[in-house]
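Figure 3 (text version): structure tokens given as input.
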């Protein structure tokens, strides 16, 4: 379950391409990349047979029988509650939780939240300070997420499509990625990442 409070990343790319409906959710005209949405939206994904996650609407999920209506409503409720709590926690640390993904599983008729939560692998953060000024002036937002890795891959001709070769990351790129993750860890937890978990360069 992907929940978005801002028009960023994949949603922004789709919007820029002219799409005004994302996973069955209508988006208003006149938005700029990184604008806050009128209200958080849920844009689910499901595992594709090959490649990346696949966008899917609430209606398609129910039509395919992936989950029951009752379970889907529970998933929506969990997703929005988790997102709002994540926003509160981020705000207390000077961050904006832009969007995030929650993965759920079901066992013995109980829905469980699985996998990691609110890490840079599943979430995008902006710095609160200067957000409005940067939006008004059309500047890129200062963000903490893996989006910069995705952008680097796209710029180097890789989007995970068939026949594409993963470009080799230089030590400098790997170092910059490591530093961004350390920065996010510090920003979110208030503590430095323990040296035993850091990659030496």
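Below: residues designed for each position.
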């Amino acid at each position: 379950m992907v929940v978005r409070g801002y028009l960023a990343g994949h949603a922004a790319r789709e919007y820029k391409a002219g799409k005004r409906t994302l996973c069955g959710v209508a988006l208003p005209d006149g938005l700029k990349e990184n604008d806050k949405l009128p209200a958080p939206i849920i844009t689910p994904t499901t595992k594709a047979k090959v490649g990346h996650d696949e966008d899917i609407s609430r209606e398609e999920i129910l039509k395919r029988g992936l989950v029951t209506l009752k379970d889907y409503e529970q998933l929506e409720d969990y997703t929005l509650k988790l997102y709002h709590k994540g926003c509160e926690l981020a705000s207390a640390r000077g961050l904006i939780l832009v969007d995030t993904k929650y993965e759920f599983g079901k066992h013995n008729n109980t829905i469980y939240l699985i996998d990691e939560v609110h890490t840079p692998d599943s979430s995008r953060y902006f710095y609160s300070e200067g957000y409005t000024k940067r939006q008004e002036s059309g500047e890129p937002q200062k963000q903490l997420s893996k989006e910069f890795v995705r952008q680097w891959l796209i710029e180097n001709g890789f989007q995970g499509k068939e026949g594409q070769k993963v470009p080799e990351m230089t030590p400098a790129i790997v170092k910059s990625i490591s530093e961004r993750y350390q920065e996010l860890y510090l920003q979110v937890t208030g503590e430095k990442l323990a040296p035993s978990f850091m990659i030496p360069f």
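The chain has six helices and eleven strands.
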